[in-house]
Amino acid sequence: MMQAIDISNRAAATEIADMPASELAVQIGAKRISPVQAVEAALRRVQQRSELNAFITLCSDHARQEAKSAEAAIMRGDPVGPLCGIPFSVKDLTNTEGVRTTQGSALMADAVPASDAVAVARARAAGAILIGKTTTPEFGHKAFTEGPLFGRTLNPWSRDHTCGGSSGGAAVAVAAGMGALALGSDGGGSIRIPAACCGIAGFKATLGGIPNLQAPDLFGANSYVGPMARSVADVRLMFQAIRGADRRDPYGQKTTQWGSPRDDQPLRIGWLPKCGNILDPEVERVTLEAVMQLQDLGCEVETIELDLVSLEPHFLVLLRSMLHARLGRQRREHPDLLDTTLIATIDAGEGLTAADLWQAQFARTGCFAKVQEFLGRFDLIVSPTLSAPALPVGLDPLGEIEIAGRSAGTIRGAWYPYTFPFNLTGHPAISLPCGLTSSGLPVGLQLVGRWYEDDVVLDLAEKLEAVLAFDGTPALSANQQEV
């Protein structure tokens, strides 16, 4: 019989909400925790931390129904999936059957997809229970999670600092215990940026490894759907459930081997502390300490130089031209419904030419060649995830920023030059928390591997996570305590 746990009891509900997905799966499988209890604990936490504004849409009633069905299946002894009963959320850019998907925009405030995205369908087939859709800036166009439709999503570590974006709601939900797992999406760092800001792990797999059929250009794709969780083990658990071939995706035509651990020889690490950017001294200190732990794990580490900042203008051509092509008509007809920063991004794409677009594609190819050259010498490239910790709220997300008191340039080249290039090259990349600044903000470390060596990346990330022993629980302020 399923063990009864009264989640009206504050301690019990808190324990379940904060439990890792991998442990929750064991407890559910052993009938010590019910899927109903797991879902109720997550929904209770959403209510308790509503001030964080992590969700656009909740599907509480349907989640409760699915949890009851999962509980009944377990009690009957039916075969169940590896994610059975685990609550998860989905970023509001990613389609969910029967649950509105707004793209974070008033233009699509009532849009309800007829089918799930591939990753969502696979997560559900594995038994995960969708509790809601998380906040995202309109069409994922910026790295701050805020917009006219829902307001601003707050960082659980500091309301004065951004939670990052564009998968900000997903990162906040996971960090605050509103579901052990989340699906984010990443077009230039949109999983890894908020993961670093919120002290969680976020993974962008090899291009095509998790099929993403919503991308308007599947052949020139640089947008990924991927797992976010409080631990690398939980990221891997979800990744294993949603990865694999889909013949509709040109980069996902067949199942791959995904790499394998290399216990017979030390991993060679290319340490990339700077890539043409200014680096915050505290981020440099925290990430370097983590890299020294890699050496203690037996890795051979060598500092490398690779210019990634110079790719920013070409990335902007791709982003702006895509948004102009996709939303130019809506910008003309409904400017009152759009975020002003989205309008500025669309307008910036209007004067671009076909030659500009091809030059950007040439630069993408050149970056791929450079990265491949380094990954011929090294097994992985390791870098800070961001040049600075979470930025203060209220900054212009399209403007220039300061880092360490110095003018650092525009936000993509200045704050996240380490992330967007690997969207263009297709390599797998994970951000994991590696420490805190003196003011208590999380710092992320990025590990990048060869195509289809996703498991090599995850293996090393999990080993490093174990020795870093990061405490990934944001403290609750006095007026945010569990009630």
Topology, please?
Elements: H1 10-17, H2 21-29, H3 35-48, E1 55-58, H4 60-76, E2 87-91, H5 118-125, E3 129-134, E4 146-147, E5 151-152, E6 154-155, E7 158-162, H6 168-175, E8 181-186, H7 192-198, E9 201-204, E10 224-229, H8 232-242, E11 268-271, H9 281-296, E12 300-303, H10 312-333, H11 340-348, H12 354-377, E13 380-384, E14 400-403, E15 406-410, H13 411-415, H14 420-425, E16 429-436, E17 442-449, H15 454-468
Parallel strand pairs: 2-3, 2-8, 11-12, 11-13
Antiparallel strand pairs: 1-3, 4-5, 6-7, 8-10, 9-10, 9-16, 13-17, 14-15, 16-17
Helix pairs in contact: 1-3, 3-4, 6-7, 10-11, 10-12
What does it look like?
The chain has 483 residues and is an alpha+beta fold. The chain has a single domain, classed as Alpha-Beta Complex (Amidase signature (AS) enzymes), CATH 3.90.1300.10. 37% of the residues lie in helices and 17% in strands. The protein contains 15 helices and 17 strands. The strands form 4 sheets. The chain has an 11-stranded mixed sheet, sandwiched between helices. A hairpin with a 2-residue loop joins strand 14 and strand 15. The C terminus is likely disordered.
